[in-house]
Amino acid sequence: MKVIVCGAGQVGFNIARHLALENNDVTVIDRAPELVRRVNDTLDAKGIVGHASDPEVLERAGIETADMIIAVTHTDEVNMVACQVAHSLFDVPTKIARVRQQSYLQPIYANLFSRDNMSIDVIISPEIEVARAVTRRLQVPGAFEMIPLVDGKVKLIGVRCEDTCPLVNTPLRQLTQLFPDLNIVIVGLMRNGTPLVPSSDDQMLPGDEVYFVVDSEQVLRAMAAFGHEEPEARRLLIFGGGNIGLFLAQEIEKEHSWVKAKIIESNKQRAEHISGFLENTMVLNGDVLDPEVLDEANISATDTVVAVTNDDETNILASLLAKQRGCKRAITLINSGTYEPLINSLGIDVVVSPRNITVSTILQYVRRGRIHSVHTLREGFGELIEAEALETSELVGTPLREVKLPAGVMLGAIVRDGEMICPEGSTVVQAKDRVVLFAAEDVIRKVEKMFSVQLEYF
């Protein structure tokens, strides 16, 4: 597949990296020579210096034969025009644009992006996606990751193994003996910053970050098995009243009315502005690094703080200050990957990466075959994939022990008629089953082929 990526920032670079690893023909356009040089030096992709919406630059990038354009520059208007040019002049089949300015996304203007006007197939709003990701994490206290799959029937949960975790030093194959009626499959481990796809003989160790797939009705039991029985947050404090903070507060008012939420915003005009959109959320004007402001917000009685200002350092420091002053849990937005290795040692409970969330959202529109959703778990780790098994797939009709799955693939769940099945050697996948699996980065292309429609089927 030939893909043109407009923008070589963090999101654009990571999308290009993912696609290039899977042997796609990738060209990246950016105005900054140093960013283009980084693409040419480190990726199996072609970098071009130029303005992403310029038809001549797009022609140099090979737009005439492109299957897809992904516009993720820092300017909404450039992204939109690049997609419009790709559609009007070059008839590119799939056009994806990142749009941050919320006024473009209001329902009354939805017709703007129709085929007759500015034809864009997929609009990605990072702020909305991040607010949703934070809301999901709030739903399972004690988890640093929570992703609903297969229409909510199954969930991927990420938990950190503490020293007190009852399951440490237990071989994974013994989990079914310890919990015979618990539908849970461990699909990945992160140990000392190194990703592992576990075998049945592996053990979980203190400090490991564990990713498991579980039946949605058994989440609380699974969390208890890992020693996490924290109550759901009822008092929430949001640091930062930007778009993410506002969307998060609105979501909580709409879906979790029993939660008492407050926002601290440093800009007085912005604080006044967002207070007009909120009914039950108190908005305070002040500095999130000021202990007096935190005390005024009653930080010691707060269950969870969510730090979503537009500055990584402020988010980290404010989270640490909040925990020092009695807050139980901190969810922290961090844009830069530089800080991720430090997070565990600092004591921050949950990290939210807008870059990973945006990349995951875009990748699910890039994947081929009957793939319903894709989620990037960690940088350089791999992806959680939800797909529909087709009659032509090598997975179908054969016991799993006889299927030669690529190394680095771990089946997490099979959902049939609304029921989760834990994959075992004797399990036979049927056509139209929904399959949830984890795939390491280097085998994603092979997984894609397993769920693609083969020509001989027609």
List the helices and strands and how they pair.
Layout: E1 2-6, H1 10-21, E2 25-30, H2 33-42, E3 46-49, H3 55-60, E4 68-71, H4 76-88, E5 94-98, E6 122-124, H5 126-139, E7 143-149, E8 154-160, H6 175-178, E9 184-191, E10 194-196, E11 209-215, H7 219-225, E12 235-239, H8 243-255, E13 260-265, H9 268-275, E14 282-285, H10 291-296, E15 304-307, H11 312-324, E16 329-333, H12 343-346, E17 350-352, H13 354-366, E18 371-378, E19 382-388, E20 409-416, E21 419-421, E22 434-440, H14 444-450
Parallel strand pairs: 1-2, 1-4, 2-3, 4-5, 5-6, 12-13, 12-15, 13-14, 15-16, 16-17
Antiparallel strand pairs: 7-8, 8-11, 9-10, 9-11, 18-19, 19-22, 20-21, 20-22
Question: Could you explain how this protein is built, in words?
Answer:
The structure is a single chain. The chain is an alpha/beta fold and 458 residues long. It folds into four domains: 2-124, Rossmann fold (3-Layer(aba) Sandwich); 143-225, Regulator of K+ conductance, C-terminal domain (Alpha-Beta Plaits, 2-Layer Sandwich); 235-352, NAD(P)-binding Rossmann-like Domain (Rossmann fold, 3-Layer(aba) Sandwich); 360-457, Alpha-Beta Plaits, CATH 3.30.70. 28% of the residues lie in helices and 26% in strands. It is built from 14 helices and 22 strands. It has helices spanning 10-21, 33-42, 55-60, 76-88, 126-139, 175-178, 219-225, 243-255, 268-275, 291-296, 312-324, 343-346, 354-366, 444-450; strands at 2-6, 25-30, 46-49, 68-71, 94-98, 122-124, 143-149, 154-160, 184-191, 194-196, 209-215, 235-239, 260-265, 282-285, 304-307, 329-333, 350-352, 371-378, 382-388, 409-416, 419-421, 434-440. The protein has a six-stranded parallel β-sheet, with helices on both faces. Strands 14-13-12-15-16-17 form a six-stranded parallel β-sheet, with helices on both faces. α2 links the parallel β2 (25-30) and β3. α1 packs across α13 (354-366), α5 packs across α8 (243-255) and α5 packs across α13 (354-366). The protein is globular and about 60 Å long. The two termini are 22 Å apart. The model is unreliable at 454-458 (pLDDT under 50).
